[in-house]
Specification:
The structure holds two protein chains of two kinds. By secondary structure, chain A is mostly helical. Chain A has three domains: about 1-35, no CATH class; about 50-175, Helix Hairpins (Orthogonal Bundle); about 220-270. Chain A has ten helices and no strands. The two termini of chain A are about 50 Å apart. By secondary structure, chain B is mainly beta. Chain B folds into two domains: about 1-90, Nucleic acid-binding proteins (OB fold (Dihydrolipoamide Acetyltransferase, E2P), Beta Barrel); about 95-135, no CATH class. Chain B has helices at about 1-10, 110-120, and strands at about 15-20, 30-40, 45-55, 65-70, 80-90, 95, 100-105, 105-110, 150, 165. Chain B has a five-stranded mixed beta barrel. The longest helix of chain B is centred in the N-terminal third of the chain and has 11 residues, at about 1-10. The termini of chain B are far apart. Classes of the chains: A mainly alpha, B mainly beta. The interface of A and B includes residues 181 and 191 of A. Chain A: Keywords: Mitochondrion, Ribonucleoprotein, Ribosomal protein, Transit peptide.
């Protein structure tokens, strides 16, 4: 009776100590889990990070001749000043643009006249994207350029998608040649929301707690294993002795006992 | 008779053709099986997808391959109910079943080569004989073997590798 009264008074006292709150004291809000969610920063969809461009060295220098002029015989005999006039730095930008484009397509061209094959198309777009990405960095408010860039990125993605389903090996080869990364479109949800993200993080946190507990328990059992095998070997040996002493056919063989001893030794070495 | 019909239907359903989709399981492929379902209200057939997991310890199939799977008599796990028999059409490396020639979209590979030869083949052209097996760029440049999801938190200690922005 005394015990019951003591227990009762202790419970009542604990209830008063906890500020008279009968609700659960743990995990009332997300702050109790210590989960801090920060919205991930989203890079622009025009950035190389998202378009998958790792940069391409086409080897076009400002001191190079513009396309077709390098093949001219008259320019070979001309003076240095005239030669300089026909280099890219003294020509309009479109000649640099054109040379870059041609050299990019040369990485993957099938034949002399190839312009329409998927890989050539992808190379065209890649050249355009690399140029416009540079341009947009300098002039972030140039909206037409931004639109062109977005269109080019989307069209190239579409071409890559088709090439992948038609000809996988060629697709991989193109990725390597043009130094690209291809990521498929993500699964839903397509937008990141605070509530949903916190929910997923909480789930992850709970999974981790469960896994930690399981791992701890496994460790505990492992610690007990050695003692168990030592006892097992002793008991098996005892059973065998008793059975032999009584003149019965032994149900435990020497092999079983040795195996148990071996396992005990293994556990010991592992602990060491 | 009824039992016989049921058995016959079961044997008929034992082998299935499906498309491999990205799977989060290690030794099992996730397979999408499509079938046509009749809508009584509109009197039309609509495509319906079923997803099953097929045991694939040898890793025969890759994402996008059309594979033949067989129903297991006993489920291996709660999810894995089928096993992969063989790859019928590998993605992007299809052989025409009638002529036995390799095809790219709607053309024969031979015809493409022939056209390139006539127009002056360049050294930069892709060579099938030297091409390595599919899958060497997995996780490096080509991320189609995994389900991609949007990055949903920002933590430098726990990076999310399979994300896009």
């Amino acid at each position: 009776m005394n015990i019951i009264i003591n227990n009762y008074t202790r419970t009542v006292a604990s209830l008063f100590r906890d500020a008279g709150n009968f609700s659960r004291r743990y995990a009332v809000s997300i702050a109790d889990y210590k989960i801090n969610w920060t919205r991930p920063e989203q890079p622009s969809e025009l950035s190389p990070e998202r378009s998958g461009d790792l940069g391409l060295d086409v080897g076009v220098k400002p001191t190079d001749f513009a396309k077709y002029y390098s093949e001219s015989g008259e320019l070979k005999d001309a003076s240095d000043i005239v030669k300089k006039m026909f280099t890219l730095q003294f020509q309009p930008f479109k000649s640099t643009k054109y040379l870059r484009k041609v050299k990019t397509v040369d990485f993957v061209r099938r034949n002399e006249l190839d312009r329409s094959s998927p890989e050539a198309q992808i190379a065209f777009y890649t050249s355009k994207i690399l140029r416009l990405q540079e341009h947009v960095k300098k002039h972030p408010h140039h909206s037409t350029a931004r639109v062109d860039l977005k269109e080019a990125i989307d069209k190239r993605r579409k071409q890559l998608k088709h090439l992948r389903t038609w000809d996988y090996k060629r697709f991989e080869w193109v990725l390597e040649k043009l130094n690209l990364i291809y990521k498929p479109l993500p699964e839903p949800p397509k937008q990141i929301a605070r509530k949903e993200s916190i929910r997923r993080l909480t789930e992850k946190h709970c999974d981790r707690l469960v896994q930690d507990k399981l791992n701890n328990y496994k460790g505990e059992l492992k610690m007990l294993q050695r003692q168990f095998y030592v006892e097992k070997a002793e008991k098996l040996a005892f059973i065998r002795e008793e059975e032999l002493a009584c003149g019965l056919e032994p149900t435990v063989s020497e092999k079983d006992i040795e195996e148990a001893k071996k396992k005990a030794k293994e556990c010991q070495t592992k602990e060491m | 008779m009824v039992g016989g019909a049921a058995r016959a239907s079961k044997t008929a359903l034992r082998y299935l053709l499906g498309t491999c989709v990205p799977s989060s399981k290690q030794n099992a492929a996730k397979v999408r099986i499509s079938q046509l379902e009749f809508n009584d209200h509109i009197h039309m057939h609509y495509k319906k997808y079923d997803f099953v997991y097929a045991n694939d310890p040898k890793k025969l199939c890759k994402t996008g391959d059309v594979i033949l799977i067989k129903e297991l008599s006993n489920k291996l796990t709660r999810l894995i109910s089928h096993e992969v028999i063989e790859v019928i059409y590998p993605l992007g490396d299809i052989t025409d079943p009638v002529t036995g020639k390799k095809i790219v979209a709607s053309q024969y590979r031979e015809d493409i080569d022939e056209a390139d030869k006539l127009l002056g083949k360049k050294d930069s052209v892709f060579d099938y004989s030297k091409a390595p097996k599919r899958g060497r760029l997995e996780g490096v440049r080509d991320f189609t073997h995994k389900k991609m999801y949007l990055k949903y938190y920002d933590d430098p200690h726990e990076p999310q590798p399979d994300t896009v922005y």
